[in-house]
Amino acid sequence: MLDPKTEDMTPLRKIIRITSSHTMDSIHGHGVVKQYFAEAMAQNALPHALLIHGPRGVGKLSMSYALAKMVNTPAGMRAQAAAEIDRKISEGVFADLLVVEPKGVAGQITLSGWKPGRDDPDCPQYYRYVDSRPLEGTRKILIFRHAERMNPALANYLLKLIEEPPSYLLLILVTGRYSEVLPTIRSRCAPIRLSPLAASEMDDYAGNLSAAAEIRLENCDLGMLVRMSEGRPGLLLELAQSSQASAEGEIAGLMRLFQQHGFIALFRSASRMLQAGGSPQSDASTGERFEAVINAIEAWLRDVLLVKTLPSGVAERLLVCARNKDELHAYARNAPVDGLAAMVDHLREAYQFAPRQSDKNYVLESFLLKTGRSMSGKPGE
Question: Which fold would CATH assign to domain 6-193?
């Protein structure tokens, strides 16, 4: 359940809360997909198992929440009742919606909680949820976030549920890594692909975002963030948050520290980077802190490249992390352009590798080690 006090949330949790508040009318773009859902609902032909996939930040989870609201507020429902269901889903307190996420150090969705037996008090008892009829709405919704992280045991167990679901159950699998979902699962779900938004749709979204109380953009070049997000609203949110987060200055300082001291500062830099992604008092998991760090490094690296390749006056007008321009200039002076270009690839590799590695410190250490080699002209393996 999401904490309604957004000021106490980590950036990622705040983004998830904004995501859950969406309806089909408030989602920007994806007109074909929304039309398909509307027609399928009108004809009572909505598939019982959907696999919503697309690039990171394109709006997959927003669409899942919007669909959950659509199926539980059918045409003809009283406006007051529909508004109450909308509110409960947005706040994460709707009894007929359950989000299943990866857990544990391995970051997997396991079979725990799916079979009757000795119940684990730390895990929802999914079998009870599936076996009981809706309490508040017309249908029960199961959303699998990061569905590619199902382990084989759970995937095999779910095949029967997907093939023979209760009439009241809708399964929505969400993934940014379509090819990593087991083929047996993919073949039994209706695929729904979300593509990046057009430039005009992103401009409209950014205009609404700048007026949202949850996200502050006073010190950001919103137009630049829109271009950086490449048609992905969720990525725009993440970039806006990372450019405002306190982690921004910490990341800039740690990258400079590693540049100055090399391997001696490797482990210290990686550990402190992960800490910068969320305070000990926050509810951020290690995976969430890692994502926040990656977003901050991405914004920082983009600014270093601008400082390195453009005249000073031009570069400073385009910076996302403008408050750390002294650190950016100091790093850029001693960084070769080809090394910075290689760092872009290393950062992408770290993001791709992280879901398969429970030790996020190790992922950051590997990234820094490869970065150090690229900067020294010894790329290695």
Answer: Rossmann fold (3.40.50)
